[in-house]
UniProtKB/TrEMBL annotation:
<dbReference type="GO" id="GO:0008270">
    <property type="term" value="F:zinc ion binding"/>
</dbReference>
<dbReference type="Pfam" id="PF00962">
    <property type="entry name" value="A_deaminase"/>
</dbReference>
<comment type="similarity">
    <text>Belongs to the metallo-dependent hydrolases superfamily. Adenosine and AMP deaminases family. Adenine deaminase type 2 subfamily.</text>
</comment>
<feature type="binding site">
    <location>
        <position position="195"/>
    </location>
    <ligand>
        <name>Zn(2+)</name>
    </ligand>
</feature>
<comment type="function">
    <text>Catalyzes the hydrolytic deamination of adenine to hypoxanthine. Plays an important role in the purine salvage pathway and in nitrogen catabolism.</text>
</comment>
<dbReference type="InterPro" id="IPR028892">
    <property type="entry name" value="ADE"/>
</dbReference>
<dbReference type="GO" id="GO:0005829">
    <property type="term" value="C:cytosol"/>
</dbReference>
<keyword id="KW-0479">Metal-binding</keyword>
<keyword id="KW-0862">Zinc</keyword>
<dbReference type="InterPro" id="IPR032466">
    <property type="entry name" value="Metal_Hydrolase"/>
</dbReference>
<protein>
    <recommendedName>
        <fullName>Adenine deaminase</fullName>
        <ecNumber>3.5.4.2</ecNumber>
    </recommendedName>
</protein>
<feature type="domain" description="Adenosine deaminase">
    <location>
        <begin position="11"/>
        <end position="325"/>
    </location>
</feature>
<dbReference type="GO" id="GO:0043103">
    <property type="term" value="P:hypoxanthine salvage"/>
</dbReference>
<keyword id="KW-0378">Hydrolase</keyword>
<feature type="binding site">
    <location>
        <position position="277"/>
    </location>
    <ligand>
        <name>substrate</name>
    </ligand>
</feature>
<keyword id="KW-0546">Nucleotide metabolism</keyword>
<feature type="binding site">
    <location>
        <position position="16"/>
    </location>
    <ligand>
        <name>Zn(2+)</name>
    </ligand>
</feature>
Length: 325
């Protein structure tokens, strides 16, 4: 049983983790008590029992409810710090962490409160040996105008995040909807990523690349339905940040045994393994590696490839990448 030990011990980067999705039920209740927020669940156990999802939307409804306990800068710090400690335990050397400011500003939490708390935790993570950066995500179920407002509020803090992404309900909200706001982010020198091809069709992956001009695709597993797209992703070394346990819990694949990670790797794609929303999907990044390898029969060669891909696909600067690789 050397493979599980290798998977756990190998240095890795995590490129697809929503910090609000790392909020464990225990911390949700602790923050609810601290802030006097009433939750529609009586206990940690009752909340955990609600984590039975049938698709992306059924998860998002509970995920946004869980985030309602976050009010003060310290709350955002505590959430991010808890994730960063778990990341260190999984031998994550670099974490590129998504956050959803609109989930908080819509409740009256100032943008500075969100970003200052998260950023302070990322700075303190240097003491853990984790190099942590933030990526601001726009909620695609909201309008492009709301995304522009969000960007305007965040730009005074431009140096505290390295890029922008696009998340939330995919079907019915194609990348094209955010063409102009991504163009503005590009002018600002921000890195660009987008969720595409999680539940949505290969066409959304094409438009994320061609219209938004993203550098990475989050999920992207539906790309396997389109051979021309697979060739493009391989030829251009466009990383896919794959999240196997998320895909299982949201029923993108009915069984982990049927996950297409091996197909993506064997086609030469820069696929990576990530946790997405670890508090909700039953595992941090090492659990994603261990369970996916056990279910699909991937081997040590695949493990090395995935670790390499994670650093290669990261937005670390060239000198840091050289050190990792
Ligand atoms: C998400 Cl799994 C997933 N998909 C899309 N948006 C998200 N936000 C948090 N988790
Ligand atoms: Zn995600």
């Amino acid at each position: 049983e050397r493979l599980p030990a290798l998977l756990a011990a190998m240095p890795k980067a995590e490129l697809h983790i929503h910090v609000e999705g790392s909020l464990e039920p225990e911390l949700i209740f602790q923050l609810a008590r601290r802030n006097g927020v009433r939750l529609p669940y009586a206990s940690v156990e009752e909340l955990r029992r609600a984590y039975a999802f049938s698709n992306l939307q059924s998860f998002l409804d509970i995920y946004y409810a869980g985030a309602s306990v976050l009010l003060r800068e310290q709350d955002f710090y505590d959430m991010a710090w808890a994730y960063l400690q778990r990341a260190q335990a999984d031998n994550v050397l670099r974490a590129e962490i998504f956050f959803d400011p609109q989930t908080h500003t819509a409740r009256g939490v100032p943008m500075e409160t969100v970003i200052h708390g998260l950023h302070r935790a990322c700075q303190d993570a240097k003491q853990l040996g984790v190099d942590a950066e933030l990526i601001l995500c726009f909620l695609r179920h909201l309008s492009e105008e709301e995304a522009f407002d969000t960007l305007e509020q965040a730009l005074p803090l431009r140096d505290r995040f390295i890029g922008v992404g696009l998340d939330s309900s995919e079907l019915g909200h194609p990348p094209e909807k955010f063409a102009r706001v991504f163009a503005k982010c590009r002018q600002q020198g921000l890195h660009l990523v987008a969720h595409a091809g999680e539940e949505g069709p290969p066409a959304y992956v094409w438009s994320a690349l061609d219209v938004l001009k993203v550098e990475r695709i989050d999920h992207g597993v539906q790309s396997a339905q389109d051979p021309a797209l697979m060739k493009r992703l391989a030829d251009e070394h466009i990383p896919l940040t794959v999240c196997p346990l998320s895909n299982l819990k949201l029923r993108v694949f009915p069984k982990l045994e049927q996950h297409n990670l091996r197909e993506l790797l064997d086609a030469g794609l820069v696929a990576t393994v990530n946790s997405d929303d670890p508090a909700y999907f039953g595992g941090y990044v090492n659990a994603n590696f261990l369970e996916t390898f056990a279910a699909t029969g991937l081997d040590a060669q695949h493990a090395y490839r995935l670790a390499r891909n994670s650093f290669e696909g990261s937005f670390a600067d060239a000198s840091a990448k050289k050190k990792y690789l």
